Amino acid sequence: MKILLTGANGQLGREIAIQLKNKEGTVLFPVDIDELDITDVHAVNNMVGDIEPDMVVNCAAYTNVEKCEANENNAKAVNSLGAGILAKAAFDAGASIIHFSTDYVFDGNKGKPYTEEDEPNPINIYGLTKLEGENAVKAGNPRHFILRTAWLYGDGNNFVRTMLRLSKETKTIKVVNDKRGTPTSTAELARAVMRLMDTKEYGIYHATCEGSCTWYEFAQKIFEIKDKPVKVIPCSSSEVIQKARRPGCSVLDNRNFRDRLGYRFCSWQDALEEYLKGELS
Questions:
Q1: Is 99 in contact with 134 (CB distance < 8 Å)?
Q2: N or C: which end of the chain has fewer CB within 10 A?
Q3: Mean pLDDT computed over 220-234
Q4: Sign of the alpha-carbon torsion through 130, 131, 137, 139
């Protein structure tokens, strides 16, 4: 299977590349912005036409939630337009597409985990552009896998590494305790991708580790596992200056992975412990 991987230098792209290289029968073509601008329809069509992939895995995204508020046009270009361009190019080449979305397509007011059947209602530009991207992928290619994930961390800048860095500078850290979601490691998400790509069970999937926590509880667990003597103080999100609104509870229910594939993610605590074994801080 020939696979074109976009956004290959991001946290998720790096992990998927690692796991795909170990997948028998796979020929991988990893690219990032320097090799391919996914908002350039001619460049995308030319590359897809040259490679003739069996599948496109799109990890390219404009993910900075705060910057999306100030740069809506850039966010739309990558998250919405670019996603649609890739999906259509893949369809024209006879390829399927795996595309990643977010828990932020929901407003967080449901009060219990969201299933794939729940109606999205984004409350910030990031969530809005990612939802537009989902719709563009669906319209451009019926052979699509759309995976909504959340609170992702891997090889790159992320909350876990930020907490570990701060623990070297201070022994008291304030962390928001009124936003609930599910930390998800790129390794665990990539394993699910490996399972999904061998099927033709197209559609939307929620794809996070099991369980949920607040950012405060997430930080506590990081320091517990690493045995760091840091005092974590819970605070309200109103105490943090942010342009973008965040959903209060955006926990996702991985129903389609369970029901269609009989697949279960590991707990967020186990995934975090696995990840932190490789972190020296």
A1: yes
A2: C
A3: 97
A4: negative
Q: What pLDDT sits at residue 278?
A: 85
**How confident is the model at residue 280, as a pLDDT?**
74
Identify any residues that bridge with 6 across adjacent strands, giving them in sequence order. 58
* pLDDT number for residue 22: 86
pLDDT (0 to 100) of residue 55: 98
Rounded CA separation 69/76 (Å): 11
Residue 76 has pLDDT above 80, yes or no: yes
> What does the alpha-carbon distance between residue 258 and residue 234 come to, in Å, rounded to a whole number?
34
Q: Is the dihedral of CA 236, 240, 245, 251 positive or negative?
A: negative
DSSP letter at 267 equals B
Instruction: Judge residue 216's burial from the number of C-beta atoms within 10 Å of its C-beta, 0-12 exposed, 13-18 middle, 19 or more buried.
Output: buried
Residue 164's CB: how many other CB atoms inside 10 A? 18
- For 2-158+182-212+249-266, CATH number out of 3.40.50.720, 3.40.50.880, 3.30.70.100, 3.30.1660.10 equals 3.40.50.720
Mean pLDDT of 35-54: 98
Give me the active site residues, please: 126
Domains of the chain by residue range: 2-158+182-212+249-266
Question: With contact defined as beta carbons under 8 Å apart, do 198 and 167 qualify?
Answer: no
